[in-house]
Amino acid sequence: MIATSDSPAAPPEAVSIGDGPSTPMAAAGSVDRPAGVCGQVVWPYAIAFLLFHAALPLMALPWLFSWTGLLMVPLGNYIFCSTGIGLCYHRTLTHRGLVMPKWLEHSFATLGVCSLMDSPARWVAVHRRHHQHSDHQPDPHTPKAGFWWSHFEWLLRENAETRGMAFYEKYARDVLADRYYMAIERYYLWAWIYGIHAALFFATGLAIGWATSGSYAEGVRFGASLLFWGVVVRTVYTWHITWAVNSITHTYGYRNYETSDSSTNHWAIAVLTNGEGWHNNHHAEPRAAAHGHRWWEFDMTWNTIRFLKAVGLAKEVVEPRVWKKAAAGALRS
Ligand SMILES: [Zn+2]
Ligand SMILES: [Zn+2]
């Protein structure tokens, strides 16, 4: 176990990240839902949640199946979720663990929008609040208020504490200072981006299927297959593995660091999320762009960042302090 008293300085935003809990409550025990939560349902989220899940039994339809569509689930997870959400929303925009050229950052953020997990500003604001109060009141999604609460229920219930301009002003001012992210927020661009990317999946499948088979009907079938597997199934899949970081890796697994929350590392969640499952490491050093700290804690997203750095597309990459200590120790010995 490694102590975390030397956590890195907070990124430059209104609220400090990784400062630990607002109250000295122990990680064990239960926590009430945030006081701002009322019984009101967030209907747009609830309807999307129900419709996407209700479509899943269509997986049994042979007409909708294609190996390409199936391949788009893990491939789409990497492209839209790991680079869009993990690398961009999380490690770049929320924690400022690296800096990319704006065109690349915006491109990755656009891929993140295609995961249908909120706009960049809202995702960042909620996640910063989670780090500020991890597993203590008023963490928006601690499993100490219920496992399923942390997995998805918190998204479907109105929480007055995570709405309104004051919330964005406090937690995501730096993100909304960027005109592209402000436009995504203000003009609901996220809905257009998601819709257009879904249409592109269908159109690409239609064109390829029609061209290769000479049959329009086969083109429609292949397009529908890519739309269903590559967009609908992949979206639900990436929802659940991302939500598992809030639920499972605050409940099950092992800990490298004595953090004041109940965050854990879980190898299966890390494999599925391309590195986000090394969550105890992440809570110990939120700014570090690498979430796998031990040699065997494989982090695909970190390897992507290393590649970007090697080709000159990422700079100011923050590495875990434990690596620097290990390197210094090796030099001394
Ligand atoms: Zn967490
Ligand atoms: Zn984080």
From TrEMBL:
<keyword id="KW-0560">Oxidoreductase</keyword>
<comment type="similarity">
    <text>Belongs to the fatty acid desaturase type 2 family.</text>
</comment>
<dbReference type="GO" id="GO:0016717">
    <property type="term" value="F:oxidoreductase activity, acting on paired donors, with oxidation of a pair of donors resulting in the reduction of molecular oxygen to two molecules of water"/>
</dbReference>
<keyword id="KW-0408">Iron</keyword>
<dbReference type="GO" id="GO:0006633">
    <property type="term" value="P:fatty acid biosynthetic process"/>
</dbReference>
<dbReference type="Pfam" id="PF00487">
    <property type="entry name" value="FA_desaturase"/>
</dbReference>
<dbReference type="InterPro" id="IPR005804">
    <property type="entry name" value="FA_desaturase_dom"/>
</dbReference>
<feature type="transmembrane region" description="Helical">
    <location>
        <begin position="222"/>
        <end position="245"/>
    </location>
</feature>
<feature type="transmembrane region" description="Helical">
    <location>
        <begin position="187"/>
        <end position="210"/>
    </location>
</feature>
<keyword id="KW-0276">Fatty acid metabolism</keyword>
<keyword id="KW-0812">Transmembrane</keyword>
<protein>
    <submittedName>
        <fullName>Fatty acid desaturase</fullName>
    </submittedName>
</protein>
<dbReference type="GO" id="GO:0016020">
    <property type="term" value="C:membrane"/>
</dbReference>
<keyword id="KW-0444">Lipid biosynthesis</keyword>
<keyword id="KW-0443">Lipid metabolism</keyword>
<keyword id="KW-1133">Transmembrane helix</keyword>
<feature type="transmembrane region" description="Helical">
    <location>
        <begin position="71"/>
        <end position="90"/>
    </location>
</feature>
<keyword id="KW-0472">Membrane</keyword>
<keyword id="KW-0275">Fatty acid biosynthesis</keyword>
<dbReference type="InterPro" id="IPR015876">
    <property type="entry name" value="Acyl-CoA_DS"/>
</dbReference>
<feature type="domain" description="Fatty acid desaturase">
    <location>
        <begin position="65"/>
        <end position="304"/>
    </location>
</feature>
<feature type="transmembrane region" description="Helical">
    <location>
        <begin position="42"/>
        <end position="65"/>
    </location>
</feature>
